Each structure stands twice: as C-alpha cells, then as structure tokens.
Amino acid sequence: IETSFAEFSIRERMREKLKAARVQTDFPSAEEAYKFFTFSFDPDPENIKDETKSKKKSESNQEEEEGEEQECDEEDCLVNNREDLFIIDQMARDFLVVKPAEYKSYSERLQKEREILFTPSILTVPMSQKVPENMQPRYIEDEGLYTGERPIVSLSNQNILENRILRQEQGKRWFGDDGKLLALPSPIKQYSTRPPIFSLEEGIEPELETLYRKAMKPMHANQYIVGSGDPQGQFQLDIDISGLIFTHHPCFSREHVLAAKLAQLYDQYLARRQQNLTKLLTDKLHALRNAVQSSLDNSGTSFLHIYIYRQTRRLRDAEQEKDRTLLKTIIKVWKEMKSLRDFQKFTNTPMKLYLRKEEVDQRSDKKIYEAEIQAEINELLEEYMEEYEKKMEEYKTELQEWKSWKKAQKTKKKKKIKQSQDQEEEEAENSEYVEEPVKPIPPKLADSLEVEQQVREKAINIRRKPGEPVLIPELSLTGSVTPNDLCPRAEVLRREDVKKRSLFLKVLFNTKEVSRTISRQISSDFRVHFGQIFNLKIFNWPESLKLQIYETMGFSSTNLLAEMFIPVPETTVLTGRARTEEIEFSSNQRVMLDHEGVGSGVPFSFEADGSNKITLMTSGKVSSSVSWAIGENGVPLIPLVSQQKTGIPSALKNIDAVASIGTSGVTDMKKLAKWAAETKLDPNDPKNADLMQLIMVATSGDACVPGFFRLEQLQQEFNFASDEELNRSKRFQLLQLRHREVAEFRNYKQVPLLEREITEKLFENYEKRLRERDVIDSKDHLDAHRALVAKYLQKVRESVINRFLTAKHHFLLSDLVNEEEVPSLGNLGLSLFKLAEPKRPLKPRRKERKKVTAQNLSDGDINLLVNIIRAYDIPVRKPVLSKLQQPSRSSRSFNEMFAASPSPQSPTRSIDWTFNQVLVHPFVEVSFQRTVCRTTAAEGPNPNWNEELELPFRAPNGDYSTTSLQSVKDEVFINIFDEVLYDVLEDDRERGSGIHTRVERHWLGSVRIPFSTIYFQTRIDGTFKIDIPPVLLGYSKEKNLGNERSYDSVRSLSEGSYITVFITIEPQLIPGDPVREKLYYLLKFDTQEDEKLLQAAEKYQAECALKFPSRQCLTTVVDINGKTVFITRYIKPLNPPQELLNGHPNNSQAAAELVARYVSLIPFLPDSVSFAGICDLWSTSDQFLDLLAGDEEEHAVLLCNYFLSMGKKAWLIIGNAIPEGTTAYVLTWEQNQYVIWNPSNGRCYGQFDTFCPLQSVGCLISFDNIWFNIQQYDSPVRINFDISKPKLWKSFFSQSLPYPGLSSVQPEELIYQHIDKAAALELQGRIEKILKEKIMEWRPRHLTRWNRYCTSTLRHFLPLLEQFQGKAVEDDHQAELQKQLGDYRVSGFPIHMPFSEVKPLIEAVHSTGVHTIDVSNAEFALAVYIHAYPKNVLSVWIYIASLVRNR
Amino acid sequence: MAAAAAAPTVFLLMVNGQIESAQGLEEGISQITCKNRDAQQALVWNFPIDITFKSTNPSGWPQIVVSVYGPDLFGNDVVRGYGAVHVPFTPGSHRRTIPMFVPESTSKLQKITSWLMGRHPEFTDPKVVAQGEGREVITVRSQGFVTISFNVVTKDMKKLGYDVSPSDMQNP
C-alpha cells in the first residue's frame, strides 16, 4: 500500500485503502482503526503536481481535513513501520462496512413512487362511478326541495377529492344521490358578525368618530305618516286652475240669464248628441226586431226577446221625446232672447243660435217613417192580441166559476123554499161570506184603427215629421255686443259694475290656505280666466282640497262668494294626463242691485206684467284639474300604496285607508267600513287582516273604538308585553310604585325577583289608602266635619306636593353650581390683601366650606342629644291631709294652706313623712319615638340635673333624605316627674330592721318640642315654660301668690315653672334649603299682584337682607292656591264670635284673653310638616277656620284681625321664637304698653317680660304697611316699637311708594256656626271610652279598676276648669276632692288640649305615665269634658287620676 | 387610577339609583398625588375601591363619580374636574377613561374674581354629573381625563334574566 501512490488523489487513496480493508476483514483491527485515525499521509512534495495543488485549494475545507489525513497517513506509515510493536492482526477495515450513498435516478424514483403513491387525477369522475350501479343520479333540487347552498370548492379540488375517495373502501357512501359529494351547507354567514374596525384618524375610537350626515327634515313627525321608509319623502300635487264661468251672477242682465240658459241647454244638447242614445236605441230596436222575427220563425216564441224588445222601444220613445223637447226649448229660449233683444234694443251677449236645416229625401223619409209606424202598429196589435188572449182565458175561467156558482145558488134557492124557518138565517150566513161574483165582461178586441191613431199621435209628438228638415242648432259667439254709448243708462251702470268686480281663488290644503290666484276682472261675458298652476309640495296625504272664490268690488272689501271641495285625485292621475274638470259652485248670498243686473236671490220676471217670476242664485263652474306631479326622474311623486307596504310593520298597514278617506275617516268607523266595501278590500289578504278586524269590530259595534287617532303608531311594535300584562305583574307594579316614590314604597329595598315572592300584603296598605281617599273614615276623627277637613287638607297637600315635585325638576344655576358672588370693592381689596398671606399656614384658621348633605346615614347613626340643665319652680308636694283635719272649705285660705303644709301632721300618718322630707324629688324623662330616657332624681323645687340624654333617631322608612327628615312629625316629650317613695311596710315593728318602700312617680308637667323644630334650628337652647296642668292633685306651687294673670301686671319669676334644656342632633344634619326661591321663580307668573309691587317687594327684601341677613322680612306669601299674595292683604279687621264678646261685655281685657284662647284652641299644624319643608302656605282666616288647622301664621293673622275688629291697635310680628323658630306673633298697644301675644297658646307677655318666648323681631305688618326692624338689636326687650320713627323702622310704603290701597283677601265677615252641644257631648263619651280602653290596653298585666265615684266628681269639676280657663280653682277643687275621697291617696291632673284628632290625645295621656302605677290596688278615674266653641272649635279636658286606698 | 389632570386629590362617590344595597366604601377621599417626573407627567393614584352592589333591578346602574381637587396658583384647593361613568356590566377587567369637566363662571368678571379669590364654581352636589337633569342651566369646560380600571364580577345576573357575559354579547 505504502506511499507509492503519487499520482492518486488523496480520496482515491482513501477509497483504495478502504477497499483493501473491506477485502481483508469485516471488522478493522484495533490497529487498523488506530491507523485509520492517526495515520498521516505524507505526500511527496515532488510527486504532487501543481494540478493537484490547485485542485486541493479549490476543495477548501475538505482539503484541510485531508491534509490532516495525509498526516495521519504518514503516521500510519510510521505505525505501519512499527507494526511489530503493536501486534494487531486485524485491521480497522475489517470492522467497517462502507457503502456508497444510495442514489436513485429521478425516473427510477418516479417509478417507485408510482408503485407506492396514488395521485388522484384532476379529471372529472364519470357519474356512473359515483352512483351505485344501475342507478341514475337523482337531483333533489330539481324535485323542488331546498338543498342549501354548497360551499364553494374549485372544480379541480373537488375532482381530486372525488377521485381519491373513490379509491377508498366504500368510497361511494360519500356520494349523495345526485352523484355529488355530500356537503354541509356553506358555513359562511351572509353578514359580518363583527363590525369592521378601521379608523380614519388615529387616536379616535371608531365608535366615537363623527360622521357627516346630511341634515334631514323631520317630515314624518306627525300622525299622517304616509311612508316612513320613503326616501324622497316629498310629494307634489299640481293644481291647475284654468278658469271660471258664472252660470249666474248678480250682474247678469236679463239677456245674460237667457244666454246662460241657452248655453246650458246647448251644452245639454251637445252632450246628448254625442251620446246619441236615440240612434243607439233605434239600432238596437232593429236588431231585436230581427231577432224576434227569426225566433218566431224558427221556434215559435221567445218571451225574453219580446220583453227586451218592448222595453227598448219604450226607452227609445222616451229618448226621442227628450231630444225633441230639448230642441224645442232651445228654439224657444232663443226666440225669447231675440224678442228681448228687440225689446231692449241692445244686445249684451255675443250669443247667436243658428239652426242648420238638413234637407232629407222626402219620399224615402216618409217611407221609413211609415214603415216604422206600421211596424209599431203591428207590434202593438200583436201585443194587444196577446193581452186579449190572456184576458180571454181569464174571462173564460172566471165565467166558468161564475156559472158554477150560479148553479149552486139556484140549488140553494130550491132548498130554501123547501126548508123551514131557519132558512133565512142560513141564507144570511151564506150571503155573509159568499160574495156574489160579478159576471165577467168579455174583453174587447183592440181596434187596429184606434191603435194606429195612437201610434201616429205619439210619433208626431216625439218624432220629426216625415219630410221635415233635420234641425241642428249651432250656438256661436259671433254676435256683436252693443257698445256702451248706445245703451240705456241702467245697462251702462250694470256694465260698469261688472268691470269693477274682480275675482280670485284661494287654494286651501287641509283647510290651510296654501296659495291664491291673482285677482282677475270679470269679463263682460262673466268668464274669468286664470290659467294658473300651483305646485303643492306636501308631506301629508291631503285630507281635503278646497277652493274658495272671492269677489272684490272696486277697492272695497272682498267677500267670499263660494267654496268648493276638489276631490283628491286618484294615484293614477298624473300631471299631463289629468283632465280638466268643471266643478260647479253656487252661493246663497242675496244681492240686489240698482241697475239692469238681475241680482242674486231676487225674484224677477221676463214678462212685462211681472208674472212668472223666477229666482236665481249666483252659481258657476270652475274648471280645474288636480293631479300628482312627476318627479325629475319620471317617478310620480305620489305616496304609492305598494311602496308603503313593503317592510313596514303591521301597525302601518292601514295607512292607505288613512290616505284614501283622510284621518278623520279613520276614527269614523262607518266611513272606514264603507271605504272597505267600496274598494273591495280582499278580506283574505293577510295584509288587510288587521284592517278587516278593525272594521269588523267597528261594524259589530261591541268593542269600544277609541275616539282618537293613535299617535305612537309604532309603540305597539316595541312593547314587549302588553300593558295589561305589565299591570298584572306585581313585580313591575312594585318597581313602578317605587320609582314614582309613592310613600309606601319609596324606600322599599330589594324588590323580590320572582312574582310569587311578592305577597299581596305589600299592596294592601297602598290600595287601602287609594280606596279610602274619598271615603271618609269617621273612626279616626270622631267628627264628620273634621274628617272632611282632614281629607281636604290631604288633597291640598297632595296637589301642593305635586306642584313642588315638578318645581324640583326645574333647576336654576344656583341649584347646581356654587359660585362666589362678585365681591364689592372693599371685599375685593381685602381679598387682594389675603393674597399675601401664607398659603398653608402653620396654624390654619377654619374656612367655611359649603356643607354637603350626608346621604349615607342609616338607623342608629343619628342621635338626639338632650341636655337637661335645670328647672325652676317645680310644684311641691302638699302634705296629705286627712279628712278629719281638713279645715272647712270656706275658712281655708292660701296662707293657711301654705303655712300648714310643711308641718308634720297627725302622728298616725307620720309613716308617710319619714320619706317625705324633701318637698319634691323631681326627675326628667325624655321620650322620643317611644324611646324613653330619664335623669336621676334631684331634690327640691329648683333642681339642677345637668345631665345629657341620648336618644336614637329613626327616620321614617329608613329614609334619611332631606325631604323625609323635614316631614318627621315626631315630637320630643320632656316630662317632669316627681319620684315619690312610699312605705310598704306592713308592720311598724320591722321598721328598725328593714326599709320597704315603693317608688311611684307623679307627672308634674311637660314640654314638647317638635322634631322638625330641632331639625330646622339645628339646636335648641333655652329656658322653656313647663306645661303644668292647672290642677295637680297633691302638689302646689311654692309661692302661688301672684296668681293673677292679666297682662298689665308685671309678672314675677314664679309665675310658672321653667326648665332649661339644650337639644341638638348628633351628627349635625344639614337642614335642606327651603325651596322658597325656586317656588318664587316658579310661581312668579302665577300671581295677581301688580308687577311693580312685586318688584318693589323684591327690592325691599333684598335691601333688608343686605343690612340684617338674619332678620326675617316677609313681603309676599303664597296662598293656599299657590299664588303669590302681598302680605298686607291678610290683615283686616274680622269679627270674633259674638258669644266670646258677650261673655265679658265690660271687660275688654278678659274678652281679649278669651279671644286669644279661642284662637289657640284651633289645632296647630305646622306647614313645614305637612308640606315637607317645601314652603309656607298662608290660608285666609275663613279658610283657616274651615280647615281648623294651621300654623303660627294663620293663628297670628286671625288673632290680629280679631284684635283689630275689637278696636285695638295690632300688628303682626314676624320674628324668631323659641321653640318655634321663625314664627308670627301679635303685638298690641294697650294702656301705654306693648303686649306680645303668642297666638298658638293664647298667652300674652309684656314687652319687658324676660320669659317671653319671642327672641327677635324682624318686621311688623299692618293692613297697610310693612316695617322692617333696622335697630341695632332685635330682642323685643331692647327695641322700640314706635313705628313712626323711620330711623328705627324701615317702612315699605313711603312717600316715594304710596300705599296703593290693596284690597284684602280676607272675607268681609266671618260667619260662625252655632255651637253643637249634642255633638260635643257624644264626642266626649266616645273619647272617654277610647281612652279607658287604651289605659287598660297599656296595663296588660294588671287589672284596671275604675273608680266611678271619683270619675263623677272629676267630671263635675272639668266644666269649672274650662270656665275659669284653668285658673284659681285648684284649691277649691282639691279640698272638695279630698273631702269626698278621704280614704284615697289621689294623684292626677287635668290635661287640656285643642281637639283635632284622637291620636294626639292618646299620646298625651300615655306620656304622663299615669298608667304605669303598679300598686295592685290602684284605681283609676278618667273624665273627659269637651267644651264647644263656635265654628266647631273644641276644647278638650281630660282629667286622669290614680287612686290608692290609704290603709 | 391614573389621570392626566393636574390635580392631586380625588373624591369618590357612588351614586345609587335603584340599586338596593351597597357594601363597601361608597364615598371617600384618596391620597394627594403629585405629577410624575417623566415626560407624561401623569398623576397616579392607584387608589383601590372595593364595593359590592346588590339589586334585583338594573335601573339606576351604579356609576362612579370622580371629582378632582387640586391647589391653584395661590394654593387654594379648587375643583379640577368632575366626571362620571357607569360601572361596566360585563364581568372582567375594564378600563374607562373619563373626560373631566368643571363648571364655568357665569361672567368674565366672576371668572377673574373667582381666580383671585380661589373660589371657583363648584357643583352643589357632585352627583349632578351622574344625572342628566338640570344640566341645561350650566356651562362647563373640559379638564383632562381620569382613567379608571374596573374589575367587575357579577353573580346571578343570568338568574335574574340579564345576560351580560361577553360570549353571549357577541353571538346573541
């Protein structure tokens, strides 16, 4: 092997080597292998030719390898040389099998592939292969079945697939009957399922991109929608008014009348000639005659033919006669006209009648004539013969009958002779019912001569005489009219009059004038030519088209001559094809003229003697045509019926009906039905189904057809459920009610999902309320009148609330945006100065931020904080006097009683006094919304508690919105009780070891503050007078000396008991802004006040508010009708009830107090509660008395008016008081001092009374002026009430604006009903019963005994209390009670209230807690007394007491 | 939450119509944020709100009302924008960009004074922007955007008959 190979390339050598190795062994030996890898061939440098070198270079990489291999070879050589060193007998080639890479030529490969692979051909598979053998392909589609669209596959692909499948086993099952591959319908949807997203501008969402759309007119906005889908939308009607001809006009001369008549006749003649009925009928007659003849010849008789023939002949005769008479009249009129022209010696009309004579061949004419007559005679004879025969037959039968009858008669007669007496009767009977037939007369045979005579006469009348020329009248207008100067004066006048007149026409479309013609003069022949075409562009199907003819006389006014309706053209009538039609008109106007004109509606005559009068009315004809226009593209601009129907839902399908008979027709069902009948509506056409149904309903008349046209035609299409269904659904009802904010459901949470989950109970209350809206429930009110009033009030409230709900949705800028006012210059400077301040100061000052109402409150979040501080002058206990020790009533005096009280009494009673060391042990209990909190008991008549009570507040229905909070009616009761300890020890001996006491509490008095006051005031801080009953059994005032309560005495501090409290709400609730301004805005137009006055009032208020923003200033108020009224109109002297004045005829003070009491007895009802903080409504005094409910303003106004009528000087004070807040009081001037009256409780205070609840005075109002307080202070104690000082009081009406004398809104006089004592008594009984039941109800665990004896005593006492108004009777009463009930320990008191409803009474009784006594042997006494005042004002006294028997 | 308005406070509020109950933070104030230093200068709050609504009726679907406050030139806190958007009703993650606006002063003079005083016009109640009522009386100016991302989960919507899942929306 060795390195001898010089010429060989390295590869060659390698191959050889490998071959050798292969030859040697199968596996190379280790050495061989080693050699193979390590041997380096060492080519001889000489041997290697340049060729090889270059070759080497060209085979770049390999070469290097090979170079290595060469090296290997060389090494190999070396190793070989040292073969002996490694004794390896096998070479590497022995192990290696080296094969050349397998390669097949392309053709060979194709050959092989052909064996393995199958390439389906792209040629179409013959059908026979695809269908089962011996079967023809079946095409389902051809058989009329829908197969669906096959997906699109290219033919070649399909062929390939088919070929492939056929090769498969059972390949044929993939083919359908039609020899095609089975395929599902094309899966490609017809529409894109997702909108294409491409945007023109970057950055803008495609949804938000703006598109340009051409503006479209909202043309189908009304009910006459013709075709909503119609793109062109506009339709056009062309109205062509060509002219007008008068057939009569007032200015017609006699000749004109005749001419008109002649023209009319001539027109008739022309029309007749055109129709040529005579000729037609004559021809027909001939034809029929032949037919009859032939039928007679052939088959005898054909009655029908003969009948028709005769009928036709009669018709022809009539027509001929008409023709003849028409011709005659024409000639007659023409003659008349000629004679008239001769008579008047001028002609007015160019009318001329020519009579063209058409000569006829006399002989042939006569022949025809004769033939005709002969034929007619024959026929008539025939006819008569027939008749004769018929009659003859009749005659024969009749004769037969008659003869037989005669015979019978004869036989009867014979019998008669034979028989006895009763014959006569019998005969009489016979003669009664057997009428004797008349002997028939044989009919006459028609005389042919007579018939001929008849026929000839008729022929002369109706037919042209033979040989007479045919007269053809021709009317022409070729005559000359006599010129004016040749005419008489009257005629000239007439002609001038005509010239003065001109006419024009108005076109009215749907009763609206759309256009009018130009005005044209009437020509002398009374024709007017307009020749105008009006194009009406319309949206609506025309309901009516009308023309009105107006006549203008010279320059004077135009008058409507006549109007006429033009029929709306058929949709097929298009412009260009429309025929001009003449529409007649006439007018019934009566016109008389003083010239030749015959006038209109005036009788006139042609005869010289004035006989034969005729009356003509103005009439004429308008020739016009109406047609639908054709659009530019040749499309008629008509709302086509077919166009509308496509794609418009059913509700619109009856549009065409609307189109055809007008909208008014749709409501008129009869008209609709008529239309349907006329147009032969196909009742089976589904398109007409609903219309047919409608018509059926209408004509059957059962169902009520709405008397209106539906406006929302498409609404039904969008309703997903019918209204009934929705109404039936309780859930929807609930949702709706909640949405409408109906009180019961306003805050209803979580409407159930399913119908069945909603109980009927939910609606019960609501439905009950709805039902009872008009039903007066006397149970709650006990008094029919009050119930009525309550209902009325409820209605007023509802209407007012509705009003304000609408106002609520009326926004002003200030409602939405908080904006700073433009500051004045000074402020601006200050704020500029502020700029220099540090922005975020280290010690920031509080900046007022606009409050935001909290809305996420829930139950328990709000607490009412009541801070009870102290009380003054609480009544103290009186020692219990035994019956024995009681001094006699007469001898008792205040002093005695007072002196006696604190000393211990009898030794036997000393047990009680061991616990009664203190005068009184008062504590305060605050109850609010039935939650009760109490303080600890303090001691003495001037206790000091200083305790804070916290009461939770719950808003009604859990609604914490402002409006809801404003309408909270609950009151805070602050009750003062005395805690009394009683010894219950049975045995005195145990006294040393134990104390057994029972705690009792005795009600002393109360203060009640409505929550609304707290809410609006945000806090209440002050000292209030405690409402202490006039009599407190067992208690007395410590210093009860100053008992006189007249207003002139300066009252001492000890006059009443007082309590100091502080009440607020935690967290602070922001009272909603009263909507007064909005109201003002809303109602500004709703007033009867003078605009100037209102402006002045506004200005005045603004000025006042600028100076003293906190002071009240009222100028206008809203009355109960929601109208703005100037406030002074409310003040007017009004008479108080005469009964009250009669009571104290001499004592004006007492009378005034009584009046004040009367006013205070009218129940109190704050507006803010009833109207949910919306506004103050002021009712006039009579309304107030009728309603028997009102707030401070009404009370104050009434009191003020009473005082005025009593001759006092009185003013209304608008100011702030505790606890009412903004309120109205009354100020009077009496005996050199000002007295302030609180109208809601009837109390009066001197100006300097420190306990006067009035805190500030804003303004004073009298009947003629308003004064605003511009003094430094506003507390009544510190101000001067002298209104004459302009420095202190700013008056509204002044010299610059004098008082205009405003009339009052108050009635002239108040009328009072008499006191109904019986009703009061009945009410009294009922209230007592109810209260007793209630007390028993409140004491479920105890037996409630009623002490009748005590009750009757109390009942006796109550009227006394009323009489003295609860004053100065206490001690007498107490003593008496003590005397009578000595064995009992009595604690009780009378409660006094004005009466409005039962509920407040119950509440008041409950709040005293009398029922809470739990002594087992306690007894109760309850008496009610109602004192009735005029006008059904009731004062209620409830005396309630508990009695415990003393041991 | 991120915004491109130049203001660092956001005030949040939920308006419920007939949504019958809501649990979670219904109203609140976010932290104050400052402008980012990068080129975008966005304000990022990343303020999470978690709230659950419950109702049997979709009327008055909840909306989120965003009011942005920030100091003006003089350091007064003034309103920088109001905006509202309905909470998406399909479950899943949503991003909403609300354009913000503020009410304009009624006159030029008021504009100047309000600028001087630092008391710009504000809505009496931010809820106004969630309602259409009464808008006819106001003028507003646009003021940047606030982006809110919602992660909405609904439950039993289908049971109530409201099908809002996205798959159903596409192939009705």
TrEMBL record, chain A:
An example of a Gene Ontology cellular component annotation for this protein is: ciliary transition zone
- What Pfam families does the record point to? C2, CC2D2AN-C2, CEP76_C, CEPT76_peptidase, DUF5523
Could you tell me which InterPro entries the record lists for this protein?
Answer: C2_dom (IPR000008), C2_domain_sf (IPR035892), CC2D2AN-C2 (IPR028928), CEP76_C (IPR056288), CEPT76/DRC7_peptidase-like_dom (IPR056290), DUF5523 (IPR041510), Tectonic-like_complex_comp (IPR052434)
Which domain of life, per UniProt? Eukaryota
Q: Would you kindly state one Gene Ontology biological process term found in this protein's UniProt entry?
A: protein localization to ciliary transition zone
Quick one: where's region Disordered? 38-74, 413-436
Compositionally biased intervals (Acidic residues): 61-74, 422-435
Domain C2, by residue range, is 863-1023
Bias kind Basic and acidic residues: ranges: 46-60
Q: By what name is this protein known?
A: Coiled-coil and C2 domain containing 2A
User: Which organism is the protein's source?
Assistant: Gopherus evgoodei
